Amino acid sequence: MNISELIKTPVVEPEKEDYIGEDGLLHCGICHEQKESYYPPELQRPGWEKHPSECQCMREKREAEEKEYRDYLHRSKVSELKGKCFPSTKMESWTFDNCILDEKKIRFGEKYSENWTEIEAGNHGLLLWGPVGTGKTYFAACIANALIEKEIPVRMTNLSAVMNCKFDEREDFIRDLCRARLLIIDDFGMERDTSYGLETVFQIIDRRYIQQKPLILTTNLSLKTLEHPSDLERQRIYDRVLEMTAPVAFLGNSLRPGIGKDKKKQLDEILNG
Ligand SMILES: [Zn+2]
pLDDT digit string (tens) for 65-97? Predict the structure, then answer.
Protein backbone atom coordinates (compact mmCIF):
# COMPACT_ATOMS: atom_id res chain seq x y z
CA MET A 1 0.00 0.00 0.00
CA ASN A 2 1.50 3.36 -0.95
CA ILE A 3 1.21 6.55 1.07
CA SER A 4 -1.75 7.97 -0.89
CA GLU A 5 -3.76 4.77 -0.34
CA LEU A 6 -2.91 4.81 3.37
CA ILE A 7 -4.14 8.37 3.63
CA LYS A 8 -7.43 7.37 2.05
CA THR A 9 -7.93 4.53 4.56
CA PRO A 10 -10.13 5.93 7.38
CA VAL A 11 -8.86 5.55 10.95
CA VAL A 12 -12.46 5.64 12.16
CA GLU A 13 -15.05 2.99 11.29
CA PRO A 14 -17.23 4.87 8.74
CA GLU A 15 -21.01 5.01 8.98
CA LYS A 16 -23.05 4.21 5.87
CA GLU A 17 -23.51 7.87 4.88
CA ASP A 18 -19.91 9.02 5.63
CA TYR A 19 -17.58 9.92 2.77
CA ILE A 20 -13.95 10.78 2.04
CA GLY A 21 -13.70 14.52 1.37
CA GLU A 22 -11.37 16.37 -0.99
CA ASP A 23 -8.92 16.69 1.91
CA GLY A 24 -8.61 12.88 1.97
CA LEU A 25 -10.26 12.72 5.40
CA LEU A 26 -13.39 10.86 6.44
CA HIS A 27 -16.34 13.28 6.78
CA CYS A 28 -19.63 12.80 8.58
CA GLY A 29 -22.55 12.28 6.19
CA ILE A 30 -24.86 14.16 8.59
CA CYS A 31 -23.03 17.28 9.80
CA HIS A 32 -20.27 17.09 7.13
CA GLU A 33 -17.53 17.87 9.65
CA GLN A 34 -14.40 15.70 9.48
CA LYS A 35 -14.22 12.59 11.65
CA GLU A 36 -10.43 12.40 11.47
CA SER A 37 -7.49 14.82 11.30
CA TYR A 38 -3.90 14.70 10.08
CA TYR A 39 -1.06 14.57 12.55
CA PRO A 40 1.39 17.47 12.11
CA PRO A 41 3.86 16.50 9.31
CA GLU A 42 6.79 16.04 11.74
CA LEU A 43 4.84 13.40 13.66
CA GLN A 44 3.52 11.50 10.66
CA ARG A 45 4.86 7.95 10.04
CA PRO A 46 3.65 5.49 7.42
CA GLY A 47 0.32 4.19 8.71
CA TRP A 48 0.19 6.98 11.36
CA GLU A 49 -0.87 9.95 9.30
CA LYS A 50 -4.27 10.54 10.87
CA HIS A 51 -6.07 10.32 14.16
CA PRO A 52 -9.80 10.25 14.93
CA SER A 53 -11.50 13.57 15.68
CA GLU A 54 -15.02 14.47 16.69
CA CYS A 55 -17.59 15.75 14.25
CA GLN A 56 -20.43 17.94 15.56
CA CYS A 57 -22.74 14.94 16.07
CA MET A 58 -20.12 13.05 18.09
CA ARG A 59 -19.29 16.14 20.15
CA GLU A 60 -22.97 16.77 20.93
CA LYS A 61 -23.50 13.14 21.90
CA ARG A 62 -20.43 13.16 24.17
CA GLU A 63 -21.45 16.46 25.79
CA ALA A 64 -24.97 15.16 26.40
CA GLU A 65 -23.54 12.00 28.01
CA GLU A 66 -21.18 14.04 30.15
CA LYS A 67 -24.03 16.29 31.26
CA GLU A 68 -26.19 13.29 32.10
CA TYR A 69 -23.35 11.84 34.18
CA ARG A 70 -22.73 15.15 35.97
CA ASP A 71 -26.48 15.43 36.68
CA TYR A 72 -26.47 11.89 38.02
CA LEU A 73 -23.52 12.67 40.33
CA HIS A 74 -25.24 15.88 41.47
CA ARG A 75 -28.53 14.12 42.21
CA SER A 76 -26.70 11.39 44.14
CA LYS A 77 -24.80 13.99 46.18
CA VAL A 78 -27.97 16.00 46.92
CA SER A 79 -29.84 12.88 47.93
CA GLU A 80 -26.99 11.78 50.22
CA LEU A 81 -26.81 15.25 51.86
CA LYS A 82 -30.59 15.41 52.32
CA GLY A 83 -30.60 11.95 53.87
CA LYS A 84 -27.97 13.08 56.35
CA CYS A 85 -29.42 16.55 57.04
CA PHE A 86 -32.98 16.08 58.20
CA PRO A 87 -34.44 14.36 61.22
CA SER A 88 -37.49 13.50 59.09
CA THR A 89 -37.66 12.61 55.36
CA LYS A 90 -40.76 14.76 54.77
CA MET A 91 -38.53 17.84 55.22
CA GLU A 92 -36.54 16.88 52.12
CA SER A 93 -39.33 18.30 49.95
CA TRP A 94 -39.78 21.60 51.81
CA THR A 95 -38.52 24.17 49.33
CA PHE A 96 -39.18 27.82 48.60
CA ASP A 97 -40.98 26.95 45.32
CA ASN A 98 -43.67 24.87 47.01
CA CYS A 99 -43.74 27.02 50.09
CA ILE A 100 -46.70 27.95 52.28
CA LEU A 101 -44.95 31.03 53.66
CA ASP A 102 -45.67 34.59 52.59
CA GLU A 103 -43.83 36.24 49.71
CA LYS A 104 -41.58 38.43 51.90
CA LYS A 105 -40.32 35.49 53.94
CA ILE A 106 -39.69 33.43 50.82
CA ARG A 107 -37.68 36.26 49.22
CA PHE A 108 -35.67 36.72 52.43
CA GLY A 109 -34.85 33.01 52.62
CA GLU A 110 -33.96 32.82 48.94
CA LYS A 111 -31.62 35.79 49.24
CA TYR A 112 -30.02 34.27 52.33
CA SER A 113 -29.27 31.07 50.40
CA GLU A 114 -28.18 32.88 47.23
CA ASN A 115 -25.70 35.04 49.18
CA TRP A 116 -24.32 32.06 51.07
CA THR A 117 -20.65 32.83 50.35
CA GLU A 118 -20.88 36.18 52.16
CA ILE A 119 -23.23 34.84 54.81
CA GLU A 120 -20.79 32.06 55.64
CA ALA A 121 -17.71 34.29 55.51
CA GLY A 122 -19.33 36.73 57.97
CA ASN A 123 -20.83 33.94 60.10
CA HIS A 124 -24.34 35.39 59.82
CA GLY A 125 -26.66 33.04 61.62
CA LEU A 126 -30.39 33.50 62.16
CA LEU A 127 -32.57 33.29 65.21
CA LEU A 128 -36.08 32.46 64.03
CA TRP A 129 -38.28 33.23 66.99
CA GLY A 130 -42.00 33.35 67.56
CA PRO A 131 -44.98 31.23 68.59
CA VAL A 132 -45.68 27.67 67.47
CA GLY A 133 -47.10 27.21 63.95
CA THR A 134 -45.66 30.27 62.27
CA GLY A 135 -43.48 28.29 59.84
CA LYS A 136 -40.05 28.66 61.46
CA THR A 137 -39.06 25.02 61.03
CA TYR A 138 -40.44 25.02 57.50
CA PHE A 139 -38.48 28.16 56.64
CA ALA A 140 -35.25 26.73 58.08
CA ALA A 141 -35.72 23.48 56.14
CA CYS A 142 -36.26 25.47 52.91
CA ILE A 143 -32.90 27.20 53.46
CA ALA A 144 -31.30 23.81 54.13
CA ASN A 145 -32.73 22.39 50.89
CA ALA A 146 -31.65 25.44 48.86
CA LEU A 147 -28.06 25.10 50.14
CA ILE A 148 -28.00 21.33 49.70
CA GLU A 149 -28.96 21.91 46.03
CA LYS A 150 -25.61 23.69 45.85
CA GLU A 151 -24.01 20.60 47.47
CA ILE A 152 -23.35 22.47 50.72
CA PRO A 153 -23.51 20.14 53.73
CA VAL A 154 -26.18 21.25 56.20
CA ARG A 155 -27.40 19.48 59.34
CA MET A 156 -30.72 20.04 61.01
CA THR A 157 -31.31 18.64 64.46
CA ASN A 158 -32.89 19.29 67.80
CA LEU A 159 -31.50 18.91 71.25
CA SER A 160 -33.59 15.88 72.12
CA ALA A 161 -31.93 14.04 69.20
CA VAL A 162 -28.57 14.91 70.74
CA MET A 163 -29.68 13.93 74.24
CA ASN A 164 -31.24 10.68 73.01
CA CYS A 165 -27.96 9.71 71.42
CA LYS A 166 -26.11 7.02 73.41
CA PHE A 167 -23.64 8.57 75.83
CA ASP A 168 -20.52 7.08 74.25
CA GLU A 169 -21.65 8.14 70.76
CA ARG A 170 -22.64 11.67 71.71
CA GLU A 171 -19.22 13.26 71.23
CA ASP A 172 -18.99 11.84 67.68
CA PHE A 173 -22.54 12.97 66.96
CA ILE A 174 -21.77 16.52 68.12
CA ARG A 175 -18.50 16.63 66.19
CA ASP A 176 -20.36 15.49 63.08
CA LEU A 177 -22.99 18.22 63.55
CA CYS A 178 -20.27 20.84 63.86
CA ARG A 179 -18.60 19.68 60.66
CA ALA A 180 -21.59 20.89 58.61
CA ARG A 181 -21.22 24.27 56.91
CA LEU A 182 -24.60 25.26 58.37
CA LEU A 183 -26.12 23.81 61.51
CA ILE A 184 -29.82 24.28 62.21
CA ILE A 185 -31.06 23.60 65.72
CA ASP A 186 -34.81 23.28 65.72
CA ASP A 187 -36.84 23.99 68.84
CA PHE A 188 -34.02 25.64 70.72
CA GLY A 189 -34.75 26.43 74.37
CA MET A 190 -37.00 23.41 74.84
CA GLU A 191 -34.18 21.12 75.89
CA ARG A 192 -34.38 19.13 79.07
CA ASP A 193 -34.16 21.34 82.03
CA THR A 194 -31.01 19.87 83.49
CA SER A 195 -27.53 21.29 83.87
CA TYR A 196 -26.27 18.48 81.67
CA GLY A 197 -28.75 19.35 78.90
CA LEU A 198 -27.83 23.01 79.07
CA GLU A 199 -24.13 22.18 79.11
CA THR A 200 -24.55 20.09 75.96
CA VAL A 201 -26.36 22.95 74.22
CA PHE A 202 -23.62 25.32 75.20
CA GLN A 203 -20.92 22.95 73.94
CA ILE A 204 -22.49 22.77 70.49
CA ILE A 205 -23.13 26.49 70.19
CA ASP A 206 -19.70 27.35 71.54
CA ARG A 207 -17.99 24.99 69.12
CA ARG A 208 -19.77 26.65 66.20
CA TYR A 209 -18.75 30.03 67.63
CA ILE A 210 -15.07 29.07 67.89
CA GLN A 211 -15.11 27.58 64.39
CA GLN A 212 -16.87 30.73 63.10
CA LYS A 213 -19.54 28.62 61.44
CA PRO A 214 -23.13 29.77 60.96
CA LEU A 215 -26.00 28.57 63.08
CA ILE A 216 -29.74 28.89 62.55
CA LEU A 217 -31.97 28.39 65.55
CA THR A 218 -35.72 28.15 65.70
CA THR A 219 -37.30 28.87 69.05
CA ASN A 220 -40.70 29.41 70.59
CA LEU A 221 -39.07 31.63 73.20
CA SER A 222 -39.63 35.33 72.80
CA LEU A 223 -36.73 37.63 72.04
CA LYS A 224 -37.39 39.25 75.43
CA THR A 225 -36.88 35.91 77.23
CA LEU A 226 -33.68 35.35 75.30
CA GLU A 227 -32.43 38.78 76.20
CA HIS A 228 -33.38 38.45 79.87
CA PRO A 229 -32.83 34.81 80.83
CA SER A 230 -33.86 33.48 84.23
CA ASP A 231 -30.42 32.24 85.32
CA LEU A 232 -26.72 32.52 84.60
CA GLU A 233 -26.46 29.16 82.85
CA ARG A 234 -29.01 30.24 80.29
CA GLN A 235 -27.56 33.71 80.05
CA ARG A 236 -24.21 32.26 78.96
CA ILE A 237 -25.92 30.34 76.14
CA TYR A 238 -28.35 33.04 75.06
CA ASP A 239 -25.68 35.75 75.02
CA ARG A 240 -23.64 33.68 72.63
CA VAL A 241 -26.68 32.94 70.46
CA LEU A 242 -27.58 36.63 70.25
CA GLU A 243 -24.00 37.41 69.30
CA MET A 244 -23.99 34.86 66.47
CA THR A 245 -27.43 35.34 64.98
CA ALA A 246 -29.75 38.00 63.59
CA PRO A 247 -33.20 37.75 65.15
CA VAL A 248 -36.07 37.29 62.71
CA ALA A 249 -39.56 37.38 64.17
CA PHE A 250 -42.21 34.93 63.04
CA LEU A 251 -45.32 36.47 64.52
CA GLY A 252 -48.04 35.28 62.20
CA ASN A 253 -48.33 36.37 58.62
CA SER A 254 -45.69 38.99 58.27
CA LEU A 255 -41.94 38.70 58.51
CA ARG A 256 -41.03 41.54 60.77
CA PRO A 257 -37.43 42.25 61.56
CA GLY A 258 -36.46 41.63 65.14
CA ILE A 259 -35.10 44.28 67.43
CA GLY A 260 -32.31 46.13 65.61
CA LYS A 261 -28.99 44.46 66.13
CA ASP A 262 -25.60 44.95 64.52
CA LYS A 263 -25.76 41.40 63.17
CA LYS A 264 -29.13 42.13 61.54
CA LYS A 265 -27.88 45.39 60.06
CA GLN A 266 -24.84 43.68 58.53
CA LEU A 267 -27.04 40.93 57.14
CA ASP A 268 -29.42 43.49 55.59
CA GLU A 269 -26.48 45.12 53.87
CA ILE A 270 -25.52 41.81 52.26
CA LEU A 271 -29.05 40.91 51.25
CA ASN A 272 -30.10 44.34 50.05
CA GLY A 273 -26.80 45.55 48.66
ZN1 LIG B 1 -21.52 14.46 12.35
Answer: 999 999 999 999 999 999 999 999 999 999 999
Residues with Cβ within 5 Å of ion ligand 1? 28, 30-31, 55, 57
Pairing of strands 125-129, 50-52: unpaired
Structural domains for the chain: 1-83 (no CATH), 86-272 (3.40.50.300)
pTM of the predicted protein model:
0.81
- What is the whole-number distance in angstroms between the Cα of residue 26 and the centre of ligand 1? 11
Render pLDDT for 33-53 as a digit per residue (tens, 0 to 9).
Answer: 999 999 998 888 887 889 999
Query: Is 82 in contact with 148 (CB distance < 8 Å)?
Result: yes
Instruction: Determine the distance separating the centroid of ligand 1 and the alpha carbon of 5, expressed in angstroms.
Output: 24
Q: How far is the CA of 37 from the centre of ligand 1 (A)?
A: 14
Interhelix angle for 103-114 vs 262-272, to 10°? Answer: 80
